[in-house]
Write a structure and sequence with these properties.
It is built from three helices and no strands. It is an all-alpha fold. The radius of gyration is 15 Å and the shape is elongated. It starts with a helix and ends with a helix.
């Protein structure tokens, strides 16, 4: 039961981090910078990667028996 709770918490944190990264990438300065350089900011990528890792770990924790 504890693993499922931890998995659920990781899932929620992962979704929040991914959403935060998306919001960060949609600011005017980040949009202009992204258009000029063709790359995302390292901070934005950190949010995306950390969010994805937490989502995967959370899914494993929730779906594992």
């Amino acid at each position: 039961m504890n693993k499922r709770i931890i998995g659920l918490v990781l899932l929620v944190v992962g979704v929040a981090l991914a959403w935060w990264g998306y919001q960060e990438s949609q600011t005017l300065s980040k949009t202009v910078e992204s258009q000029l350089t063709g790359e995302l900011d390292s901070r934005t990528m950190t949010f995306y990667i950390a969010g994805a890792v937490c989502i995967v770990l959370g899914l494993v924790g929730v779906l594992r028996r």
